[in-house]
Amino acid sequence: MKKTDIDWPKITKIVQDYNSDPECLLMIMQDISDIYNYVPPEVIPVLVEKLGVSESLIYSVATFYKTISLEPRGKYIINVCTGTACHVRGAEKITHALAEELGIEEGQTTADGMFTLDAVRCVGACASGPVAMVNHDTHGALNRSSALEMLDQYRK
Amino acid sequence: MVDRLKNRDELITLRKNLVAQHKDGNKKLISLCSGSGCGAYGTASVYDSLVAELKKAGLSDQVEVRLTGCHGFCEKGPIMVIHPEGIFYPQVKPDMIPDIVEMTLKNGEIVEKFLFKDPVSKKKIIHEKDIPFYKLQKRVIFGRNQMIDPTNVLHYIAEDGYKGLEKALFEMEPQQIIQEIKGAGLRGRGGGGFPTGIKWASCAKHDGDRYVICNADEGDPGAYMDRSLLEGNPHSIIEGMLIAAVAMQSHNGFVYVRHEYPLAVKNLNIALKSAREIGLLGKNILGSGFDFDIKVSRGGGSFVCGESTALMASLEGKPGRPRAKYVHTVEKGFRESPSSLNNVETYANVPHIINNGAEWYASMGTEGSKGTKIFSLVGNVVNTGLVEVPMGTNLRTIIYDIGGGIPKKKKFKAVQSGGPSGGCIPEQFLDVPVDFDELVKIGSMMGSGGMIVMDQDTCMVDVARYFLDFLKEESCGQCNPCREGIKQMLDVLTRICAGHGKEGDIELLEELGAMVQKFSLCGLGTSSPNPVLTTLMYFRHEYEAHIKDKKCPAGVCKPLFHYEIVDGTCTGCGLCARKCPQDAITGAKKETHVLDQDKCIKCGICYDACKFNAIAIR
Ligand SMILES: Cc1cc2nc3c(=O)[nH]c(=O)nc-3n(C[C@H](O)[C@H](O)[C@H](O)COP(=O)(O)O)c2cc1C
Ligand code: SF4
Ligand code: SF4
Ligand code: SF4
Ligand code: FES
Ligand code: FES
């Protein structure tokens, strides 16, 4: 991403909403991630300045927590739940079906930038498993075919 | 909105008026679940058609529609209950609404075809209270969920909400509150089962700016009671934290909640805002002179952040790595200050104890574990959902009487409790009463209350491999025994599952397990071998079958089994052949079919499809 493509006023607003509190670093990065689906490395120097934290702290936080990515991700992030309840109901088959359909592996993004395929450990909808989240939407009781139909909803 | 409450009397008057309003007349109340589970099945569109249809029928004034949090039977969502009768309609779709409005709400009739059909007795059931899933539960903590719109503080107040806080603020000394919690025998619901009263007492003893922190990281995969409580009844958690704050004279609280729970975060923030507006949080609460407020912090999807010291590091904006506990967090925790951390469900218990007394609370449960516990009953079981029962209820009651047993006439194999740190419990222990101590005796633990039921088609070696794979990903990596030990155990298990198991592997696993258990720094490491050790204890023959016979009896580890069609049992119905994606099955009508091993990819579709059990795992 180019520096000019970043919505700087929005970034400033996010930081202000947390009173430039360095303890809120992770949440600030999560909010930035909600806009771009990743944290563009271009914003890091700005966070260093506004929060008064070191660049190394930002990198260590960004790499420690799974909700943060410093690499661009797809417009839609598919998180297939691999929690125990979903696992015993065949979550693996869902991941395989999606990977095959999208031609990518877990952790990768499609060439057109539409989908990222990822795994999440549990989204708390365990009674409806197997479950997948697409951005903030939850899809339950999936099987091979309904998982593929789910993709179609987002392709439009 | 109501004005800021200036004193206790104003709250009492408000509650009285709300209850009176509620009792008034014949007004019907539709409780429609909009928790995450039901929401995923489409509550929003059901709500829209309901409101429109009621308006059309001229019933808008006589019927209140309340969007509530989780009722616990999420699998059957969206769930609708019509009060005062308690008529239960599961899996409601917008096209069912006209009938429900016309028949049930207008004419007082039941729409037979929409009723819940009990999968065990095959009978249709009208009232929620008669459904076996609900009937045998005791919903002390969870029960109010379905009467409350979590975004409306008045609903909570009408259900005796903030009464415990009143008592704590105006009738009790901090010491007395702690004594009451101790007397109740409340133990932490987050996993460890540490006595809550003792924790509060030691935190209160240390000077400094004390912090009251709520652990809503809910890392145990398969458990979701904390999400449902926070989402469905956030004020009960706020009230629990407030009482803890009075007891420890703390003025600052935090809730650490998973980023993956957006609705819980949203509802909690709404609840905090309204509690502030009405004078139940902030400065001079109810005119008592006591100040307390709560901030929300969102975690970043890391399991280890549920551990107390890691959670506090994360709250400080750092990577969540645990530290050694030479100094306990009740002395020096968050910001180097005395900090008391409790789980969501633990806090949800607190108002009930203060309201009804320690004696009442201690009358429920067993000698060492008091009260009720919410379990997340999931996996291969007929009725899945959240189940609240008194401590000491046995596994059979939970899995068979409430859960309805194992689906598709399959056999029970094990129930996994305690999450990645827990263990797998075999059939011979189904009559063991479930409490903190009994589960430890049989090699497992309560954990946060996840109960994952596994049927005959689950491979226990694969389950052990699965948990270690999970823990390898989640280990923070700062200490060797955990980082390397888990990896080594996982390598051995992966090898066994791939058919390359060797003589001596079982002993190697036991040795590695003992080392990791002994020398890891935090609870993640020390408990990580549990899934391996308990499956070795109870399902050793399955390991041996993998290693010696190169067979996976459950038909999970692909290199170690194949499917075969059994001559004599196969009716030649042809269903499997039609479903096979590889065209690997052939055969004439009404004759035994043949499965071509070279074409088969072991996807299991035929095995699941055959109605005659004619496909065998060999
Ligand atoms: C690796 C690990 C993960 C944990 N995850 C959680 C969690 O997600 N939620 C929780 O309440 N407790 C969790 N705990 C337990 C907490 O460390 C702590 O004991 C608990 O929150 C204290 O509250 P309680 O006494 O009310 O249970 C975890 C512990 C460990 C070692
Ligand atoms: S035991 Fe594992 S998770 Fe815990 S501190 Fe050590 S490496 Fe980290
Ligand atoms: S589905 Fe079963 S009974 Fe029917 S042809 Fe296949 S193996 Fe035979
Ligand atoms: S396991 Fe799958 S591929 Fe093999 S025969 Fe059955 S349906 Fe066909
Ligand atoms: S295990 Fe999949 S949602 Fe909880
Ligand atoms: S979310 Fe509706 S019953 Fe659980």
TrEMBL record, chain A:
Keyword flag Iron-sulfur: yes
CDD domains with a match to the protein in the record: TRX_Fd_NuoE
GO MF terms held by the record: 2 iron, 2 sulfur cluster binding; metal ion binding; oxidoreductase activity
Pfam families, per database record: 2Fe-2S_thioredx
Co-factor note (free text): Binds 1 [2Fe-2S] cluster.
Keywords (A to Z) from UniProt: 2Fe-2S, Iron, Iron-sulfur, Metal-binding
Obligatory cofactor(s): [2Fe-2S] cluster
UniProt-annotated binding residues for [2Fe-2S] cluster: C81, C86, C122, C126
Cited InterPro entries: NADP_DH_HndA-like (IPR028431), NuoE-like (IPR002023), NuoE_dom (IPR042128), NuoE_N (IPR041921), Thioredoxin-like_sf (IPR036249)
PANTHER family reported for this sequence: BIFURCATING [FEFE] HYDROGENASE GAMMA SUBUNIT, NADH-QUINONE OXIDOREDUCTASE, E SUBUNIT
Similarity remark: Belongs to the complex I 24 kDa subunit family.
Protein name from the UniProt record: NADH-quinone oxidoreductase subunit E
Source species of the chain: Desulfatibacillum alkenivorans DSM 16219
Automatic annotation (TrEMBL), chain B:
Location of the 4Fe-4S ferredoxin-type domain: 561-590, 591-618
Listed InterPro entries: 4Fe4S_Fe-S-bd (IPR017896), NADH-UbQ_OxRdtase_51kDa_CS (IPR001949), Nuo51_FMN-bd (IPR011538), Nuo51_FMN-bd_sf (IPR037225), Nuop51_4Fe4S-bd (IPR019575), Nuop51_4Fe4S-bd_sf (IPR037207), Thioredoxin-like_sf (IPR036249)
Record keywords: 4Fe-4S, Iron, Iron-sulfur, Metal-binding
SUPFAM superfamilies: 4Fe-4S ferredoxins (SSF54862), Nqo1 FMN-binding domain-like (SSF142019), Nqo1 middle domain-like (SSF142984), Nqo1C-terminal domain-like (SSF140490), Thioredoxin-like (SSF52833)
Pfam families named in the record: Complex1_51K (PF01512), Fer4_7 (PF12838), NADH_4Fe-4S (PF10589)
One GO molecular-function entry: FMN binding
Family the entry assigns: Belongs to the complex I 51 kDa subunit family.
Protein name: NADH-quinone oxidoreductase subunit F
Origin species: Desulfatibacillum alkenivorans DSM 16219
